[in-house]
Amino acid sequence: MAHEKNHDYHIVPPSIWPFLGALSGFVMLVGAVFWMNGMGPWLFLIGFAGVLYVMFAWWADVVAEAEAGEHTPVVRLGLRYGFLLFVISEVMFFAAWFWSFFKHTMYPMYEYVGTEYVQPEFYQVSAFDLPLINTLVLLCSGAAVTWAHHALAHGGPRKDVEHGLLLGVLLGIAFLGLQSYEYYYLIAVQDWSFSGEIFFANFFMATGFHGVHVFIGVVFLAVCYFRTRAGHFTAEKHVGFEAAAWYWHFVDVVWLFLFFAVYIWGI
Question: What is the three-class DSSP state of 85?
Answer without folding.
Answer: helix
